[in-house]
Design goal:
With about 300 residues, the protein is of the alpha+beta class. It has 6 helices and 17 strands. The protein is elongated, with a radius of gyration of 19 Å. The N and C termini lie close together (about 10 Å).
Length: about 300
């Protein structure tokens, strides 16, 4: 029997691990010492059409049921309306006018011509991930030199390991896969602080489980001024909510992968699979991508 070796200890890793276990497939699970799990994260369900091979509503229902199953006491997640800035004439504004026939918890509600509420999800990510890893025997190891093959091989802290590898390593995937689509990391300004609200990528806001305000997925590109970028983020955030105190800034690394703008499964070589380009969308799409990867792509049953 070939070992299934799961590499990556974030939300994608958790969803893949749970899907494997549901089907009775044993795996060896490694988180990386450099895994970066955000403190809290918020993301909407509706309003955008992503390039994934699944019906959107079915994916949203799967996500809702997944979180209810792993967190039945609602300690780490909350379904809550997400407030967003949608300037008139923008692609985002147009998407809200054609969201389709969704259940009430997903339907959009306009506050004014450019502020809209839609169904969303907020999660205390670091606490949830840490609990799940501890309960399910995740091992923190350094993994390097993954080579596709039959089976694939890798070095795990000096030891030679073979098997079917599944990569859920986020931006670090660029360290394992040579691909022009997976070049390493732009920097992102991640979050600022407040008493009651969380703002995430695309300037959406929801009631926070951490008492923080966050601004994410806006990247420094060549020629950008960090100060100007932060000023623009704060100006936009103030259209959603006012807060007091000095903002606290954090920086993260993500894939510079323009062809991988939406969550998807990648197959870089024999016996190596992966989930790429989740970002903040992982809250919504990780369960669907994990199910597709394990049930449709994994050759071991």
């Amino acid at each position: 029997m070939v070992d299934v070796i799961l590499v990556g200890g974030g939300l994608a890793g958790v969803t893949v691990h749970r899907e494997l276990a549901t089907l009775g497939i044993a795996s060896i699970w490694y988180s990386l010492p450099s895994d970066n799990v955000p403190i809290a994260i918020a993301h909407p369900f509706a309003g955008r059409s992503l390039d994934v091979s699944a019906d959107r509503l079915a994916a949203y229902e799967l996500t809702l049921n997944w979180w209810r199953a792993v967190d039945p006491d609602d300690r780490f997640h909350r379904i809550t309306p997400v407030r967003r800035v949608a300037p008139q004439g923008s692609r985002l504004h147009r998407s809200f006018t054609r969201t389709g026939d969704f259940p009430d918890w997903l339907n959009v509600r306009w506050q004014n011509d450019e502020l809209v509420y839609e169904g969303g999800l907020t999660c205390k990510m670091d606490a949830f991930i840490q609990q799940y890893r501890t309960q399910h025997g995740c091992l923190e190891k350094s993994v390097s030199q993954i080579e596709p093959g039959e089976p694939a091989t890798a070095t795990v802290e000096g030891s030679h390991v073979t098997g079917q590898f599944i990569l859920t390593t986020g931006p670090q995937m660029a360290e394992y896969i040579e691909s022009p689509d997976l070049s390493p990391g732009e920097l992102a300004v991640v979050e600022a602080s407040s008493d009651e609200i969380r703002i995430g990528s695309g300037f959406h806001a929801s009631a926070s489980m951490e008492g923080q305000i966050g601004i994410g997925s806006t990247h420094e590109r060549e020629g950008d001024s960090t100060a100007a970028l932060r000023d623009a983020l704060l100006d936009k955030a103030q259209t959603l909510v006012s807060w007091t105190g000095e903002p606290k800034w954090y920086r993260g690394v993500r894939l510079n992968a323009l062809p991988l703008r939406t969550p998807q499964i990648v197959t870089p070589g024999p016996s190596v699979l992966g989930i790429a380009a989740l970002g903040g969308k992982g809250l919504v799409w990780a369960p669907t991508l994990a199910k597709q990867l394990v049930r449709d792509h994994l050759e071991i049953r």
